[in-house]
Design goal:
Blueprint (H helix, E strand, L loop, with lengths): L10 H9 L3 H7 L4 H7 L2 H17 L2 E6 L3 E6 H4 L10 E3 L9 E6 L2 E8 L2 E8 L4 E4 L11 E8 L4 E9 L7 E8 L4 E5 L12 E2 L2 E3 L2 E6 L2 E6 L4 E6 L5 E3 L4 E3 L2 E8 L6 E9 L2 E10 L5 E10 L2 E8 L5 E7 L4 E6 L7 E6 L11 E2 L2
Parallel strand pairs: 8-12
Antiparallel strand pairs: 1-2, 1-26, 2-3, 4-5, 5-6, 6-7, 7-27, 8-9, 9-10, 10-11, 13-14, 14-15, 15-16, 17-19, 18-19, 19-20, 20-21, 22-23, 23-24, 24-25
Amino acid sequence: MANNFDGDISEDIVREILLRLPVKLLLRYMSVCKTWLSIITSPDFISSHTQRALMVSLIDPTLLAYRGVDELILFSRARDGLTNNNHSNNLLVMPRLFGFTPLVINSCNGIICVANSVNHNDLFHLWNPAIRKCRKLPHPPRRRSYRYIIGFGYDSISADYKVVRCECDYPRDFKANKVHVYSANADCWREIRPTIPLEHGLRSGRADIVVNGVVYFENFDELISFDLHKEIFGRIPLPSTHLQPKSDLLDFEGAVAMVFENVGDEVGAHLWTLDDVSGRVTWTKRFSIDADPDSRLWLICYLGGGQFCGRITNKKTYGLYNILCNYEKKETKLYRIDRDDSTCLTGMIHTETIVSLGGFEQLE
């Protein structure tokens, strides 16, 4: 094909058409002609395509799930529900260079942060599986403790992807005295001084959620926040010690949220959101979520459109199910989990994009 449009279709119209195509087709059309390649690889197009993909994901989100030690499955709410049937086309096999039993930290703008730890030597990769490219991060300073937590997200103000690693000096005093932040723009780790002691219940693993450029994770009877741009910590008490959590931390319509039930109350659960009221951060009780008294419900993610996903266990039969519940329509769908099924929902939404960072290398 010629490297122009012969006056039939303007370049602006072609750009608008390309913006509406999935990543798989864009990768194929990059080889059509130099003009299309120039359009698709331009920073403005990549940014616009990513924003459009994120908007579409609000309508039809794709949920990440582990299967085994090195495989991820993409669950489409609309297409697949939460069944594990014939997902060969939605399977992501993590490259061997990520190491054994890699831990997925978070997915942001199509980029997945993967961590692995052997003898306290942390290995990190930023990976965009849609374009089969990744970047190996420089090694952070060696950890001295088994207790740590890692968060990954996007600082939109600096247009920078960042990884934060908090290390606890366990078992001496349960306080995090080492915090390191990786900046993709600078491609290096920096040690920062924690502005608050991270103590009591800090557990190893990944941070829970990232909302509006702030990383949040649970810490005993409170939340710890880390602002990716300002690089400062904060602590937020949970609503009440008389409430029993019934969910992970959730991103509910752009607000931090959790589901609680009153201690001793076997019927009914309620969603609470963290809101800014007149400049003061406070918890607000929003609405009730139906809970079967004969089952143990745990919600792991809000998918939008009034729909939550999670797991439920029948107290009598011990049957285990994935669950989709719509609090607006009062509808619940159960998906039986076989005992030999190793698939585990992560609670992370993944959106395919063509975002590529400096230092990304093609995977074979």
